[in-house]
Design goal:
alpha/beta, Rossmann fold, 5 helices, 5 strands, globular
Amino acid sequence: MLILIAEDEPVSCTVLKKFLSQYGPCTVVADGQQAVLEVKAAYERKQGYELVCMDLHMPVMNGHEAIREIRQYERANGILRPTRIFVTTALDDMASVTEALLGKCNAYLMKPIDLNILRQELQAVGLTK
């Protein structure tokens, strides 16, 4: 499984990368714009990411905008099996949750990330057994 971690906070990035590396290679980017570019490049190489962990509060482009751009790219290019996007954030307000879910994220995980919940979400979307 190819995994992209879009995270600008070093501790969260380290925790996610250490945990998710057992499932496959992880690429790390520090902002939403880099995440969008990396997802598009992976699709163009014919090896799209199976999982993107997306923080919402990042520089250059926030996670909400990045999710919208990724989903728009997938629709425009007829991608039938879109990448799974897990929001990983400290934002717990209803507006952020609602916007992420409307943006078609597959899971909304609160920081600090509970690795058992992350494992359950990976199973729920069929990425692990």
